[in-house]
C-alpha cells in the first residue's frame, strides 16, 4: 500500500485551488499543468520509484500566506509538502501523498547582516552559497558547506541538518541555527530561539526543528550564527593505492596529529573517475586507487604550513604515492569541484542506484569501507564510496550492474541494504549522517532504531501536527 | 496553590518504601529521617521558599533499578525528582511536589575513554571536573566548564545544558553530547544518538533531552565528544573604571579583533569585592570599577601572544586602567577562583536575593547592564552583575537591602523582575542562558514566550510522560 492509499486525504479540488489563488494570487498557483507540476515531483534521488506528482503547487511570498495555506490544508484534509531547491537525497520534498507542494522559492531575501552580533537573518529560500557572497568584505562567514551549496536553499539545509565538507571542524548546520520563525502544522506563526548564543528557556525546539525534514513546520525566517572568516586555507590532495590506506589516515591525523582539519573528504577510485569524467577534467591523479582531499584553514601562515606538512608527512608514511598542496584558490576550486560533482556524475551513470549515507563512529570507517568491499564482491556489484570520512559519514552508491534485470535489482536491493544495516547496528552506526530519512529510508528505520524511539517521534509529530498534513509519509508513517 | 496541591499525587507510603528497598536494597533508601532528607530538599537557590522536603530518597546503582523505580512511580502515582549534585540554580532538583527524590550519586564511573573516536562514555553521577582529570595525558579534553565544575555532576550539566566559562569559544554542553542512554518517564530504557558526530536518523531527541531539566527522563549513560587539548593558555585581567567601559570591549574584541577568546567573564565592582572577600584574597585589583577576565588558548605561542597583545591594546584604548597577563597556571587559578566563587560568596551575604540569569544578543549586553543600573537606582537596591559577557549571558543578583522588611521585599520582587523581563522582550532576550527555568522561573515564562510555544512543550511532555510523574512542576505546569 502506498502513502496515498494509507492516509485518507482528500483530493485537491478546483475549489481548493481557488482558495489557494485567493491567498497567493493566481500567478503563483500551478494546477492542471503536467509539465509544470512534473519538476515538483522529485528531488535528486535517481530512482523514478521515488517520484510522485503533486496535485497543485503554491508559491507564497510571506509567512502570513503560508499560515493561511496551512490552515486551509487542515480544514480540507489535504497534505502539504514543503519544498526548497529540490536538491535533497532522500525524497524529503517529494509529495508522496500527492496534495499540495508549497515552494518557498520566492522567499529569498537576506533580511539582515548583524555584524555586531555576528549573525545573519535570512528568508528560507536563500541559496546557501549566496550567504557567504553577501558576507564578502565583512570578515565574517557562514560555515555551512553542503556539496550542493551552489543550488540548495538554506531552509532545506536546516530541515535536513545538512553536513557537508567542513563539518569536521565547524560542525553541521545545527550548530549555526540560533533562531527560527516557523509556521506550525496548525498554522500558528511562532518564534523559537533568537539572536542568542545561549538559551535554556524551555525545551530546545530550535534543535528539534533542525533535521525534522519539514514534518514539524515551515521555516519562514532563519537566524544563523557567523564566525570570523579564516584568512588562509590550504588543500592537500593525497593519492593512495587503496581505499584502506587512505581511510586509515583519518583517525591518525586527528588523534596523533592533534589537528582538526576543515575537511577530510574521501573518494575511492570509481568516485574520482566519475567526478573527473563528468567535468571533462583531465587530472594527473584520476587513476589513483583512492584519494583524500584534506583542507586546513586559519589565520597564521606558519601554523597552517606546519599543519599541512604534518598531514603530508603522515600520509607519505602511510603509503601515499603523491601529496599535492593547493594553496591558491583556483587550484583549490578545481579539486573541490570534482568532489562536489560526484553525486551528480553518478546520477547520470545509472538510475538504478541506492545512494546510501551511512554514518559510523569515525574510527570505524576503515571497517565499514572493508565491509562494503566484501559486499560488492559477494553480490557482484560496484559500490563506489566517497564522502566525509573525518565525520564517519560515507556515501556508498550501491549500483546495479548493467546486465541485471530490473527484477533482479529490486530483489537484491533489500538483501544488500539488510547486510549493510546489520553492519551499522554492529558498529554503532546509523542510517543517515546528513541526507535524512525522508521517503526513501523510512522502511528501514526499524532495523536500526528501537520501537520506543519511534513511538516518541510519532508522539511529537502528533503534538505538532494533529491532522498529519505536514509532509506526511516522511521519516515514519503515522500508523 | 502550590504544586503539591495542584497535582493529585499519592503520598509515599511505607508499602511503597518497601518496594523501593526491594529494588535498590534497604541501605539505599532514606525515609522517615528528617535530617537525612533535608539535604535533598534544596539546591543552590538561596531563598528558602524554593525548598521542599522529599518523602523518600532512593539511590539506585544502575539503569535497571531506575527503570523499576520509574515503573513503580507510575503505578503508584507518586512523583519522582531526579537529582545530581544539587548545585543547580533554578530549583530543578527540588522535589516541589514532594514524593521520591532519585539520586544518581552512586552511578559515578567513567565507563570508557575512546581515544580513537575522541569520545568519553560516563555514568551520570561523574563530577564534571573528574572528566578532565581522567583525560590527563591523553592530549584530549572535555570543553565543558561550568563554574561549579568541581562539584556538579555531568548529568546535571546535560539536563540544564550548562554553559560556563568557555562557552564563547567551545559552545555549551549541548555541543558535546553525542549519545544518551535514558530511562524514559514510562520506565523504558532507550538509546539516543551514539558515538556519532553526525546523525540525522529521526528527530534529534538527544538535543531535545539536553536542557530538558529532568522532565523527560533520567540519563544513565552519556557519550561526550572530546577535542584536542590546547597546549597553551593565557589569561588577561583587565581593570576598568566602570561597567560600561568594560562591557563595551566585548563586541569590539570579537568583531573588530576577529578573535574568539576562550572566555570573556565580566565582574562588576561588587562582584569582585564579594569574590575576594569570600576567598580572603587580597588582590591589587579588588577596588576597581569593573573587571574583564579574558582567556585565550591555542597551540602556537606566537599567535597566542599576538591575540592577547591585541586584546590588551583594545582594552587600554577603551579605558582600562590596568591589564595583567597571567600566563602561568597558579596565577590563572587564583584569578579564576575568584570568578568561580562569586555565586557562593553572594549566597552567604543574603538569602533575600534573586539570582537572575538573563541572556540577550551579545551586542545588547551594554544596554542590558545600563538598564540594570537604572533599575537598581529606581528601587534603591543593589544588583551586582557578573557572568559570561561574551555570550550575552549575565548573572544579575537582585539583592534585598538589609533594612527592607520581608513584606517589602516580596512585594517588590515581581515589580523589579517584571521590568527586567520587559527589557528582555524589547532586546530579544530570554529568561535564562544556562541556569534553567526549573521551579523558580516558571511563573515568568509567559512574559517572554508565546502560549503556542508553551503548548508545544506541554504536548511533548505529555508524549514522554503521560502520568506527569517525572520532575513535575518544573519549567511549566501541566494544567
Give a short summary of the structure.
The structure is a homodimer of 479-residue chains. Chain A is an alpha+beta fold and 479 residues long. Chain A has 16 helices and 18 strands.
Question: What does this 3D model show about the protein?
Answer:
Two copies of one chain form a homodimer. By secondary structure, chain A is α+β, with helices and mostly antiparallel strands. Chain A folds into four domains: 3-105, Uridine Diphospho-n-acetylenolpyruvylglucosamine Reductase, domain 2; 110-228, Uridine Diphospho-n-acetylenolpyruvylglucosamine Reductase, domain 3 (2-Layer Sandwich), CATH 3.30.465.10; 232-339, Alpha-Beta Plaits (2-Layer Sandwich), CATH 3.30.70; 350-448, Alpha-Beta Plaits (2-Layer Sandwich), CATH 3.30.70.2740. Chain A is 36% helix and 20% strand. Chain A has helices at residues 3-6, 14-24, 34-38, 63-76, 128-135, 154-160, 167-170, 205-209, 243-256, 269-279, 301-317, 329-340, 342-349, 365-379, 406-427, 451-464; strands at residues 29-31, 56-58, 80-83, 100-103, 110-114, 119-122, 140-141, 177-183, 189-193, 218-225, 227-228, 232-240, 263-268, 290-298, 322-326, 353-359, 385-388, 393-399. In chain A, the strands form four sheets. In chain A, strands 15-12-14-13-17-18-16 form a seven-stranded antiparallel β-sheet, sandwiched between helices. Chain A has a five-stranded antiparallel β-sheet with strand order 5-6-10-8-9. Chain A is globular and about 70 Å long. Chain A starts with a helix and ends in a 15-residue tail after the last helix.
